[in-house]
Every structure is written in C-alpha cells, then in structure tokens.
Design brief:
By secondary structure, the protein is an alpha/beta fold. The protein folds into 3 domains: 27-37 and 226-454, P-loop containing nucleotide triphosphate hydrolases (Rossmann fold); 51-220, P-loop containing nucleotide triphosphate hydrolases (Rossmann fold, 3-Layer(aba) Sandwich); 469-697, Sec63 N-terminal domain-like fold (Orthogonal Bundle), CATH 1.10.3380. The protein has an 8-stranded mixed beta sheet, sandwiched between helices. Strands 5-4-6-3-7-8-2-9 form an 8-stranded mixed beta sheet, with helices on both faces. A two-stranded antiparallel sheet has the order 12-13. α6 (139-152) packs parallel to α7.
C-alpha cells in the first residue's frame, strides 16, 4: 500500500513538473526586435589597435603605466606588444597573475607567440624554463624572488614587470602580496598594470609616483568593445529589457513593464521551495533567440552540479556534426588521464553540451571544461562567481540569478566591480556584435540593487597591507627595523592616510593617523620572534630565524618550532606529508577518528606527540593575540592514505571530500613540503624526506602530465 502511495505521489509530482515546465514558453517584448537583429558575427577585418592601446604602448616607453579597460577590450594585446619590444632588446619580462589557471592560460598564449623556448612558467607546483626571456608566474612567486634579491643585495633579473588583474591589490586575502611587490620593486624596472575594474586608478598612480619617483600614466577607457545589453527573463519565459534610460540624466532605471515586479511582496520566481529553475526550458528560450553560449552564475557548487542534470538533451546538440566534434574533443582532452575518462559529469557534458565549473572540481577537470568553453563546444557553463575573475571564458550571454555572492564567510550584496567582472564575460570580441547580461527573478534577486550597480563606477581599491610572520622574517633578512619602518611608509595605506580627510578616513581608522597601528603590529610580531629566539635584541635574525625565513608558508613559525624541536618525522615521507597537511588545512573537524581502531598507530602517535609538543607554543601565540591553527587528524589521515597509494575514488567517497578540496589540500601540502626541502643546509635529512614526500602525493589525478 505504501509503495503504491509513493508511486502515485511520484507520478503526480512528475505530472506537476511537466505542467509547470509547459508554462514557460519562449517570448520577447516587441522592443527587443531591433536589439536581436544586431546578434551575429562581425565581419572579419584586419586587426587595428584601438586608440587606448596605442596610448598605452607609448606610455610604457618612458613611464609606468596603469591600464583600466573593460574585459575583452584588448589589455593582453598591450602586454604582448610591450613584451615583444623588451625581448627584442635582449631584455627580460616577468608577467605576474593572481591565479594559477590564468598563469597557465597566459603561458600557453605567449608560448605560441614567442616560442616555447622563450617562455617559462613558475606557479609553485610547476617550474619550467625559469631563466627564459619571459617568465609567467603567480604574484607570490614574484614577491618571493624580490625577498631573495633584497637578501643577497642583487637586482631582480627583469626589465619589465606586468601585473595582470591589478584590482587584486584590493583583495582582502592577497592584496598585501601585490602591495609588497610594488613597494620592493627596484625603480629601474618599469611597471605595467592591467585591470578591468579599478574605481580609483588616479589615486594608485599618485601613490606609485610618490614612492617610485617617476611618472605613472593612467590609460582609462569605459566603452566595451562589444556593447552589453541587459535583459530580464520573466518566469513565463518572456524576455524584456531590464533597463531603460531616464531622460533627465540618462541614468538607467528599471524597464517600466518590470519595475512593478521589483517592489512586489511575492515576486514571480523561476522556482519554488528554493529549488533550481528549469534550466532545460531556459536554455531552449536562449537558443530560440540565439543567445547561446551562456555562463550561468549560481550561488553554490551543489547548484552548479545539479543544474547540468536539469538540462534537456533533446533541445541541445541537435546537429550530429556538432555532437561528434564535442565527443572527439572530449576524447582528445581526457585520453591520457584514466580518472577523467570516467568522470561522473562526463555523461552530462556529452549529452547536453553543458558543464559545471567550480573549486570543488579537480584542476584537470576544470581545465577540460575551460578548454571546451573557450573553443565554442559548449552551450552553457554553470559556475560560481569565482570564474568571473581572470580566465578567459567569453560567451554571448551571462545569466545572473542572485544579487549577492558568498565571500567565503557569508553572503554579501554584489558590489559594482563584482557585477562588472561577471557581466564582462558577455560578448566575444571578433565573435559577437552584441553581448547580453540576463537577470532572472528569484528569492535572492534584488532588481533595484542590480540597476544601482549598473549605474555605479567600479569600486575603489583600499590598501590591504597586513603584517605576518613570514613578512617580518624576510624583511629582517635584509633590513633593520628602522629601514623596515621606511618601507612601510611607502605603502598604499600610508598614501591613503595622507589623502583628503574623507578619502583617508578608512585608512586612518585601520592603520592609525601616522601608520602607528601598522607599526605597532609589526613590532608585536618582532617582539614575539625575539621572545622565541628567532630574532636578536638588535633586530637581526638568529640562526633559527635565518632558516625559518625560507618557510614562505601560512604558518611558518609553528612549522619552524616543530622542526627545531624535532617533532616532524625525519625519515618517513608518507608520514611527513600527512603531518604537514594538518598545518595547511582550512576546515574545522572533530577528533572522532582519533578514537577509531582503524587509525594507523604510527600516524596517531606522531600526531598526538606534535599536538602535545606544540601546545605551549600555540597557547603563547594566542595569548599574544596571534592566530594558531588547530591541528586535526582528518586531513592527515587523507594524506597518509593517499601517500600509501589508496585509490583516489575511495578517499573522496569514504571521507566526503570534494575532489577540488582534496586536490587543493594536497597541492598546498606539496608547497609546504617544497619550502621545507629548501632547508637542506641545516636539516639535510628532513629536506630529503620532504622531496620524497612531494613525489608521493603529487600524482594523477591531482596533477596531470
């Protein structure tokens, strides 16, 4: 009886779903007829640089240069031309990006242009041709090279520094690295900064001029190379313009036919009970009006993975030739990687020409999706907002479902720069006459907020300089405290403090009216290092401080304390990898596995000894106001099994770890081990074991070859 009831309930649900789906039919407001007539591929013409590109090339000849232009406007072309001029004079170029994926993309592009033998790549886990004429790498690697150059009293071997995605200067977590690079960079090396979203470029240029003593030209352009038209997709399936211009000041306001929806208490929604919209129907509508390919920005990884299951394969890939091209390309991309061949999302990819893309996926799988999207093989990609930064995923349309985004801690309203980064993916230069930003109704969509953002300039960048133990150790390698104080006075924070009363208010509150709060923070870090015998009374590094400065990792002094007290396994590489992973873990766990009979005794004994041995040191850190990460056994257990060749699928399944999270834990562990391997002069046995541990954990499918 119960089975019959559930079967009946299931049938009714399916019937209701069909009825709801049928209510969404393609339609468009009559005002869009002229807009849709513009859709198409522009006539292929011989490339002619835009005025701002010519101005930027001219500016780099005798000054630093900051270029701010919309996504797809051609900023990378400027970098290519400037790099060509430098290497033609037998000079060297360092091209820094904030993301490994973007670094790989630029490396591939520059290798085709300049020849692979002339281009190197440095990302921590990849080191190829580091002495090449052009080196592409992450900003952290460049910052570390500047530390080394200051230590030995040598100039960085470069004749041009290119900082791509320069708005990362304002990133809360990583902006300090960008600021350090600019502060430490020798004046003789010209700077080229590229960004799509900087609200206060003149302020940044003024700061650069004040600390580098040379002109910084700002090349700013607002117009997109491909016009962007905002649309609203009604729950009925009808497309409307999202905005219209207000006659009085030409500002955008909500289109009159949908302005009423924005203020309704019960706004029409694409889905009910917090379920996802009928993406199959939505793709059918976009296909009807030739608005594909599209990138959908969703709020979570789970939503992205679920979305591809809702796409109707009958509506997509109607062309046998196109389907075969997609299948052949996928086969080519995964042929040498057994895990990718049987990836659980491959069937959806092949059936619907849609893909999910987020940080929970393996880097290698994301690379497959990225290649397919960039090559025009996909109709849609469902992604979290992180895909908006950096990597080139142009599409004809972007679809935005929420007016907020998760910042790693909580959901916050989008800001102007974030919306511009997302919408910047719409419209492909040379492939589209027009691009579309499509907004959908929903519980977490505030239409008035979206329109407000469209009328707003990019967000201003604020200084994110912070003091950490790695910075203090590395600066003390080559500078005394008084010299370091002068360096900090070159910070963007210092420049903002000296700005007008209103503009400098935030900086003064955070850093002090004369940067005194930042300096106090530095001194507190140095005093702790002094009390723990990493620094002398004269402000110089002790022997322990010298080797500890090479540990350019998140928890350098906790790891250093473990090393000098001989807590770390000296001869067992798998055990060393397991223990180091507990220092890089970013998640909270409980201690339940410690009481599990299946926990390997060797791992349990070493882990408990380290946690007990480090406790007094960690407690002292906490008392002095510094963070000290909790050490959990779970990440250590994962790495222990992985280093002992447990199958990848088993680890992900048994321990409920997303593939991307596990890969990131392994990669970060590998980077920490790589830093330990540099200690071969002082700890040769440990350094050797660290190198062996790296080989054990950096293997398929975490890294691909």
């Amino acid at each position: 009886m119960k089975k019959k009831y559930y079967a009946s309930k299931k049938a009714n649900t399916q019937k209701a779903d069909k009825i709801n789906a049928s209510l969404m039919q393609p339609g468009s407001d009559k005002s869009l007829k002229r807009v849709f007539e513009k859709i198409g591929v522009p006539v292929r013409m011989q490339f002619k640089p835009d005025l701002f590109q010519i101005q930027a090339l001219q500016a780099t000849k005798d000054s630093d240069c900051l270029v701010t232009a919309p996504t797809g406007a051609g900023k990378t072309w400027i970098a290519e031309q400037v790099a060509h001029d430098v290497i033609k004079r037998n000079g060297k170029v360092w091209y820094a990006t904030p993301l490994k994926a973007l670094t790989n993309s630029i490396h591939t592009r520059f290798s085709k242009l300049f020849g692979r033998e002339n281009v190197g790549i440095l990302t921590g886990d990849i080191k190829e041709n580091p002495d090449a004429a052009i080196v592409i790498g992450t900003t952290e690697i460049l910052r570390n090279q500047l530390y080394d150059a200051m230590h030995v009293g040598e100039n960085l071997s470069s004749d041009l520094i290119i900082l791509d995605e320069a708005h990362f200067l304002g990133d809360e977590q990583r902006g300090v690295v960008w600021e350090e690079i600019i502060i430490y960079l020798p004046v003789r090396i010209p700077l080229l900064l590229l960004s799509a979203t900087i609200g206060n470029p003149l302020s940044i240029a003024e700061w650069l001029e004040s600390i580098r003593g040379k002109k910084c030209r700002v090349i700013k352009v607002h117009e997109r190379p491909v016009p962007l038209f905002p649309l609203f997709l009604h729950s009925s399936g009808t497309l409307f313009p999202l905005t219209e211009e207000q006659e009085s000041d030409q500002k955008k306001i909500l289109y009159k036919k949908i302005s009423k929806l924005a203020d309704m208490k019960n706004r029409p929604a694409m889905s009910h009970n917090e379920k996802l919209p009928p993406f199959g129907d939505i793709l059918h509508i976009l296909h009807t009006y030739d608005l594909l390919p599209a990138i959908f920005f969703l709020k979570s990884r789970a939503d992205c993975d679920q979305a591809i299951k809702l796409c109707n394969s009958k509506l997509l890939l109607k062309s046998p030739e196109r389907k075969k091209a997609l299948m052949d390309k996928i086969d080519d991309l995964v042929s040498n990687h057994p895990h990718l061949k049987s990836h659980n999302q491959r069937p959806y990819l092949e059936r619907t020409a849609t893909a999910s893309h987020h940080s929970g996926h393996l880097p290698a799988w994301k690379a497959v999706v990225e290649t397919l999207m960039a090559g025009g093989f996909l109709d849609a990609m469902f992604a979290t907002s992180t895909v908006a930064a950096g990597v080139n995923f142009p599409a004809r349309s972007v679809v935005i479902l929420n007016s907020d985004r998760f910042n790693g801690v909580e959901f916050m309203p989008l800001n102007p720069s974030e919306l511009q980064q997302m919408s910047g993916r719409a419209g492909r230069r040379g492939m589209d006459n027009i691009g579309f930003c499509i907004v959908m109704p929903g519980k977490f969509m505030d239409l008035n907020h979206i329109v407000k953002l469209m009328n707003s300039p990019p967000s201003d960048i604020e200084s994110q300089i912070t003091i950490n133990f790695s910075m203090v150790l590395n600066l003390l390698l080559s500078h005394g405290p008084d010299q370091i104080k002068l360096l900090l006075e070159k910070s963007f924070a210092s420049h903002q403090i000296r700005s007008g009363k209103k503009r400098g208010k935030t900086a003064r509150k955070r850093f002090g009216t004369d940067l005194e709060l930042l300096w106090i923070d530095f001194m507190e870090h140095m005093d702790f290092l002094l009390s723990e015998k990493f620094v002398t009374d004269e402000g110089k590094l002790t022997e322990d401080g010298l080797w500890a400065s090479k540990l350019r990792i998140d928890s350098p002094i906790l790891v250093a304390q473990s090393i000098r007290n001989n807590f770390l396994p000296q001869t067992d590489p798998a055990l060393l990898a397991a223990i180091i992973s507990s220092f890089v873990n970013e998640r909270e766990f409980n201690d339940e596995p410690l009481h599990n009979q299946a926990l390997p005794k060797a791992l349990k004994d070493v882990f408990l000894d380290i946690r007990k041995g480090l406790k007094p040191f960690a407690v002292n850190m906490l008392k002095k106001g510094f963070s000290a990460p909790n050490l959990f056994i779970q990440p250590s257990l994962l790495l222990y099994f992985w280093a002992h060749h447990e199958p990848w699928e088993n680890i992900c399944t048994l321990y409920d770890f997303a593939e991307g999270d596990l890969a990131r834990l392994i990669m970060r562990t590998g980077e920490n081990l790589r830093q330990i391997s540099k200690l071969e002069e002082t700890f040769p046995e440990l350094a050797k074991t660290a190198r062996q541990a790296i080989d054990l954990i950096l293997k398929e499918p975490v890294v691909t070859y």
